[in-house]
Design goal:
Number of strands: 3
CATH architecture: Up-down Bundle
Shape: globular
CATH superfamily: Rhodopsin 7-helix transmembrane proteins
Largest sheet: 3 strands, mixed
CATH class: Mainly Alpha
CATH topology: Rhopdopsin 7-helix transmembrane proteins
Distance between the termini: 70 Å
Order of helices and strands: HEHHEHHHEHHHHH
Number of helices: 11
Amino acid sequence: MKTKNATELTEFVLTGLTYQPGWQIPLFLMFLMIYLTTIVGNLGLIALICNDPQLHIPMYLFLGNLAFVDTWLSTTVTPKMLVNFFAKSTLISLSECKIQFFSFAICVTTECFLLATMAYDRYMAICKPLLYPMIMTNRLCIQLLALSFLGGLFHAILHNAFLFRLTFCDANTVHHFYCDIVPLLKISCTDPSINFLMVFIFAGLIQVFTILIVLVSYTLVLFTIFKRKSVQGIKKTFSTCGAHLLSVSLYYGPLLFMYVLPGSVQENNQDMMDSLFYTVIIPFLNPIIYSLRNKKVIDSLTKMLKRNA
C-alpha cells in the first residue's frame, strides 16, 4: 500500500519567495526587469564578441560561453518564478521538476568549469606570454569548452539518475522557487542519505577542484607580476583579472553554503536567498562586471554604437 501511495504523488507545490500578497507586484516587476536586463546584457555581449574580430581570442571565447550559460541558467529559473507570483496554482509536475533541475545542474556545473578555465587562460597569458599563442590554440580552447559542458552534463545526469530511486508519498510542498535537489530530498519518503552523500561528494569535489585551479592560477599570476616590479603591469593585470576574480568570489560563496555545507544548519529562507543570488543576480551582474572593467569590450561597444548612430 505504501508503494502504491508513493507512485500517486506526481505533482509538487513551489512555495516561491513570499507568502505576503502585498509584495507580489513589486517583486514581480523587479525580477522581470532583472531578467530582461540579464537577457539583453548577456546576448548583447555574445553578439559583440561574435561581430568584433579583435575579440576573437580565447579570453573572449570563454567569456561568450559564460554569457550563454548565464542566459540559459536565468531562463531555467526566472520565467517559472515570475509566473508563480500571480498563478492561482503553483503546481509543477514531477517530470517538469526533474527537467528543471537537470537544466539547472548543467548550467551551474558548467559555469564552475568555465570560471576555472578562464583563470587558467589568464595564468597562461600573464605568466607564459611567449608560449601563450602556441599553447592556447583554437583546438585547445574548443576542447576545454567541450569538457566544461560535458562535465556539467555528466553531473546533471548523475543526480537525476539518483532522483529516480526516490518516492514522494506524504509532503508535496517544495520550499523553494524552483526544483532544487536539496528541498526535494527533504520531502522524500525514501531514505535520501545516498542522494545527500552524492551531492556532498560530487558537488564538493567539483567546487574544490575548480576553486583550486582559480587560486593556484592567480597565486602564480601574483608572483609573476610582483617579480616584474612594474606598477603599470600590476595595474594592467588587476584590470584584466579583477572582473573575473569578482565574479568568482560572488559565485562560489552561495554554492559552498548550499551544497558543500549541506542544509543541516541552513533554514529554507536562507537556502532560497543563496539560490536567488547565483541563479538570478549573478547572471544579471556578470555582463556588467565584465563590460565595465574591460577596455576592449567598452571600445568595441563604442565602435558599434557609432556605426549604428
